[in-house]
Amino acid sequence: MLRPFLLFVYIAKIFVLIQKIEGTTEYDTYFHVFSKQNINKPITILWADTTKWLKERSFQNCSIKLIAHGYAERWNMDWRWDWVSEMKNEIINNKMNENLCVIAIDWEQGAREVNFITAVSNADIAGQHLAEFIQNNLIDPKRLHCIGFSLGAHLCAFASNNYYTISNKKLRFARISGLDPSGPLLRKASIDKRLSSDDADFVDCIHTSTTFGLQEKSGHMDFFPDGGKSSAEGCEKFINIKDNDETEKRFRIKRFLYSRNRKENDTSEDMPKKSILGKIRDRLGALNPLKKVFLNIHAYIGCNHLRSPHYFISSINQCSFRAKLCSSWTDYLSKKCKDPVDNDLTYPRMGFYADKSNPIYKVGSGSFYLKTTPDKPYCTLSLSSRSEKESKKQTSLKSKLKKKLSKVLPKKIG
Q: Which residue among 175, 178, 242, 278 is least enclosed by CB atoms within 10 Å?
């Protein structure tokens, strides 16, 4: 493990040196838009564009899910776990058959600043770009659900607040989901400097890491799976990536050395130009053995932090993460939680369907706890089994009511 880690450190130092040589410049924010009509090939729109969005009919009536990546990430990661793509696919193919559009927010140029303080400022700039894009393209903010991981969670807050300002303090986003909102330099910060319950009509957060994430309450519903304190089971395991075919491995090396073609998804004329650093990273990402090193280190060091997008993705089509309103993790384990509102129909649920929880939870500031499992999809109860159970319960209630009514109502004559 030591040698791969040293390799990681040396490459990171090279990237820092290149970034210093390139210097910092003003950057643009891009929006890669997906729908059922173009699930694999995004339509890329520059934040200042005021015509392209309005020309696409399929975008005009869909509910919009915005996905904001975090610090030092990109919207289509090749040598890390590409959680943005996985989440996008799960959302568009949701079992509820809702008409949804997904916008992957591309603020890579600002997110990859070595100085984290600068990156936080850049997240605010990206938020301004998003707010202006929404206003200039006449998008109803009540159609918007912004899902942000790490520093991307705060970007969602900045965007909603910027929109609130330019709309003369009339409207904010309908919903923000903070996936382990970034903690470094933002702990104990005032609520106008980070994600809080004031930033949207409904804010739900999943807290999974004490190292990289916030433990402070940040929404109307704050979920703490397994206590939320970097305690997820299974994080000591490394993932394993193998080439099944030696020919494919040789092809990857050849492509790394000689290929100048863009990725299939990078064909849009509005795609941002790659910096020297970006080009080197893309070349390195084509080498699977090196990719394996980075994925393992990334998955190990940030395992608990990364569990938040894992849980959210699993909640879309696979898991029913039922939680309990409780004062602490200790009380949860001791079964001392007191929640008179909890029931099998509007129970508090973590993840994509948190907005289906009882309205009382959604206007409060409660802490919710639950247990997960060590392996994917991290749950014991699936959405299908939960819906079957609820359906049976509703049927049972109807039959009981029918029996009671039959005793009270007069019988038919003749």
A: 242
User: Of 359, 350, 9, 402, nearest to 205 (Cα)?
Assistant: 350
pLDDT tens readout for residues 160-196: 999 999 999 889 999 999 999 999 889 878 888 999 9
pLDDT digits (tens, 9 = 90+) for 335-386: 999 998 999 999 999 999 999 999 999 998 999 999 999 999 999 877 665 5
For 234, the token pair is 């299974």
| Percentage helix, strand, coil for the chain under 3-state DSSP, each rounded to 5 | 45, 15, 40
Number of alpha carbons in the 13 Å side-chain half-sphere of residue 304: 20
- Residue 267 burial (CB count, 10 A): 12
Do residues 207 and 150 lie in contact, with contact meaning Cβ atoms separated by under 8 Å? no
Q: Is 204 annotated as a binding residue?
A: no
255 annotated among ligand-binding-site residues = no
Superfamily (CATH) of domain 2-317: Alpha/Beta hydrolase fold, catalytic domain (3.40.50.1820)
Backbone angles phi, psi at 171, to 5 degrees: -135, 145
